[in-house]
Amino acid sequence: MDTSQLQVNFYWAIDQTPFFVFIFSLNIFLAFTATLGNTLILIALYKVSSIHPPTKCLLRCLAMTDFCVGVIVQPLFVAFLMEIATDNWRILHLTLGISNYTFCGFSFATATAISVDRLLALLLGLKYRHTVKLRRVRCFVVCILLVNIVNGFIYSFSSQDFANSVGFAVIITSLLLSVFSHAKIYLKLRQHQAQVRHHVGHDQANGGGMIPMNIERFKKTVSTIAWVQLALVFCYFPIFIILILSIVNIGDWFKEGSIFHVSALTVVYFNSTLNPILFCWKIREVREAVKTTLKQILCFSS
Is the pLDDT of residue 91 over 80? Predict the structure, then answer.
């Protein structure tokens, strides 16, 4: 992007004084809530032992990514908004671009990986624990993190159009994989429920009463990640539209620093505050661990 055009767009955003104050204050608040909420989730996941280690690893990665958004990305964004009226905005612009592509892209890919993990757990059955091991999950996590870091550097130092295309491809691929995984899970669960109803007497006679309970726990986990991905789609939809418009190069009103771009980024960052709420709402073990942690903090402070 032309530097003079970038500067003009930045001034377009910052000159809207009420809007600038609102976005500035909102991002400070969201940075605090994302940091606090995801800290509690990370502590809760450490305490919870009922979640299978590979799945817990992916949930931790998602929470850690959201924590980094609150601690690193949003303060950078706030500092960037303060500096764009001066000549010091260029370094912050590069750093913010790398951070956005790294953490936001990684968050989207991790949520999709959790959906695929739940599908594998359903399809593989007893073979799941021997196939999906913690070491393999960690290697996969490192790979997708490196891909997003490289794309962030490409965006900041080389071809922004190419990086936008990669970001668009990551979002589309993640969405398709998620939809496929949830559709397959839904069909398999319906098939399993039909089998359980048909053989309920035989299952009870052979001690099969544990299967429905395991399935119920599985459903809760799948429901949690479904809500997380719906929140991702909702929060990333504006920036997704901006990516499409930047690829086809229609007009300048959506360019970096414009009101629309700044607003879309704020909605993306809001997702990092929303995810801890969804974890507490949908996973009972996490909710209880968070309550215990808050009680311990309050007792210690008093």
Answer: no
